[in-house]
Every structure is written in structure tokens, then in C-alpha cells.
């Protein structure tokens, strides 16, 4: 099993550009989520999904869109990047969403917006 | 007030020392309490998991949860240089898996 994979590892964008951060898992997990990690702020939940076709907002959803068309993939889209979105982004997955199941994290994508 | 408070100050200890980390929280609905370890430029990985109050031990690691005080702790005995990492507390209520994280503590174990 590859676990949770994320691409790209690094990305530099200019303000106003759009891009999609990819996340995939091969563990047949129902629950997937996106976090951002900023210095001094810890990890904050952006969006999450409890299954294919079902997504919802987390703590800091503004400026980000998600969709979940398959169990395996959960891409995060930045429609118009802003410098405030410079961060490290982590995707995570777990088998279920209702029991505090262990969440497995990907290696992260480091995004810089100029 | 943030739901989970973790003093983010770095911690340097000599090899073999006991490391003590803690978090406080305000949401009484939290039922699942975790500690994640994150090495530099890597994703977090689950280290300890506790449901409700009590202690849990796994090798050199002990996690404690005191729900009456809304306080959780992680102890690392006989610390090793390989324990040098950032430790994040996280918690979630029953019924969902939306983790609330503390800011993390960077721990450096000096050989």
C-alpha cells in the first residue's frame, strides 16, 4: 500500500493563479480531509469528506474548493491564490468518520504564493 | 479562546531525560485524544490514542487524560535523539473525526 500520496511536493504560484493539489489513498478509507499548517498555528481543517459525493467545510474553508468523485481521490482547488494561502497542506484519511479513527497523513505540499 | 491550547515553546533535553508535554482544552464534548509526532518536513503520524479519561502506556511513551480538568499529557521516558520531533496534541468529539490540534511542541533530545 502506498498509503496517502500528495502531489506536487512543492509549488510556487503568483497571486491570482489557480491550481489543484492532488491527494489519493489506496486504503479504501471513507473519510478524507485537508489541513493547512502554518507556523505558530498548528494544523487547521480546511474541508473534509465522509464519502464519495459528500464534502463539508472545516475551520478555514474560504478560498478553497473540494470535490470527491471517487473513494480514492480528494483534490483541493485554489481558484485565485493569495499570499495568505502560503502554507504546508496535508491530506489525511481514515477508515471511518464517526469514532475518532486513526487518521493517516500524507507527506504534504509546500505552497508559496508570491 | 482556541479550543485546544498547547504552549508551543521549544524544549531541549539531554538524552535519557523525561520529556513532559501537555495540552488543555475547552470543549467538554471531546472524547478521543491523540498525540501525533511530526518529523521535520514530514506528515504527522499517530503516536498515542486514548478514549475518554485514563492512562495509556506504550513502551517509553505514556499518555494521560484528565477530563475533569480538561488536561492531557504525554510523557517520554529515557528520551533518545530519535525522539527529536514536533509533538502535536489532537482531539475530537464522538460522532465525527474532525481533529482539533494544538500548536505543537518542538522537542530536541541532545546526545
List the helices and strands and how they pair.
The complex is a heterodimer of chains A (114) and B (111).
Chain A: E1 4-7, E2 10-13, E3 19-25, E4 31-38, E5 42-51, E6 54-57, E7 64-66, E8 76-78, E9 87-94, E10 104-105, E11 109-113
Parallel strand pairs in A: 2-11
Antiparallel strand pairs in A: 1-3, 3-8, 4-5, 4-9, 5-6, 7-8, 9-10, 9-11
Chain B: E1 4-5, E2 11-14, E3 19-25, E4 30-38, E5 45-51, E6 54-58, E7 61-66, E8 71-76, E9 85-93, E10 100-101, E11 105-110
Parallel strand pairs in B: 2-11
Antiparallel strand pairs in B: 1-3, 3-8, 4-5, 4-9, 6-7, 7-8, 9-10, 9-11
Verbal overview:
The complex is a heterodimer of chains A (114) and B (111). With 114 residues, chain A is mainly β. In chain A, 0% of the residues lie in helices and 51% in strands. The mean pLDDT of chain A is 94. Chain B has strands spanning 4-5, 11-14, 19-25, 30-38, 45-51, 54-58, 61-66, 71-76, 85-93, 100-101, 105-110. In chain B, the strands form two sheets. In chain B, strands 2, 4, 5, 9, 10 and 11 form a six-stranded mixed β-sheet that branches. A five-stranded antiparallel β-sheet of chain B has the order 1-3-8-7-6, with no helix packed on it. In chain B, strand 7 (61-66) and strand 8 (71-76) form a beta hairpin. Chain B is globular. Classes of the chains: A mainly beta (114), B mainly beta (111). The A-B interface holds A 4, 31, 33, 35, 40-45, 48, 58, 90, 92, 94, 96-108 and B 4, 6, 8, 31-32, 34, 36, 41-46, 49, 51, 88, 90, 92, 94-99, 101-104.
Amino acid at each position: 500500500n502506498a498509503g496517502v500520496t500528495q502531489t506536487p511536493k512543492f509549488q510556487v504560484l503568483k497571486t491570482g493563479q489557480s491550481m489543484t493539489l492532488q491527494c489519493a489513498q489506496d486504503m479504501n478509507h471513507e473519510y478524507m480531509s485537508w489541513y493547512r499548517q502554518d507556523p505558530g498555528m498548528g494544523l487547521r481543517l480546511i474541508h473534509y469528506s465522509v464519502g464519495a459525493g459528500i464534502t463539508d467545510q472545516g475551520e478555514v474553508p474560504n478560498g478553497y474548493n473540494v470535490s470527491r468523485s471517487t473513494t480514492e481521490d480528494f483534490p483541493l482547488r485554489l481558484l485565485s491564490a493569495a499570499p495568505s494561502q502560503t502554507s504546508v497542506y496535508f491530506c489525511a484519511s481514515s477508515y471511518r468518520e464517526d469514532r475518532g479513527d486513526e487518521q493517516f497523513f500524507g507527506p504534504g505540499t509546500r505552497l508559496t504564493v508570491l | 479562546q482556541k479550543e485546544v491550547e498547547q504552549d508551543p515553546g521549544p524544549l531541549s533535553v539531554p538524552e535519557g531525560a523525561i520529556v513532559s508535554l501537555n495540552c488543555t482544552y475547552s470543549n467538554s464534548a471531546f472524547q478521543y485524544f491523540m498525540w501525533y509526532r511530526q518529523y521535520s518536513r514530514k506528515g504527522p503520524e499517530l503516536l498515542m490514542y486514548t478514549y475518554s479519561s485514563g492512562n495509556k502506556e506504550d513502551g517509553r511513551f505514556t499518555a494521560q487524560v484528565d477530563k475533569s480538568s480538561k488536561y492531557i499529557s504525554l510523557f517520554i521516558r529515557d528520551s533518545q535523539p530519535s525522539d527529536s520531533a514536533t509533538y502535536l496534541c489532537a482531539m475530537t468529539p464522538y460522532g465525527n473525526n474532525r481533529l482539533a490540534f494544538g500548536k505543537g511542541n518542538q522537542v530536541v533530545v541532545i546526545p
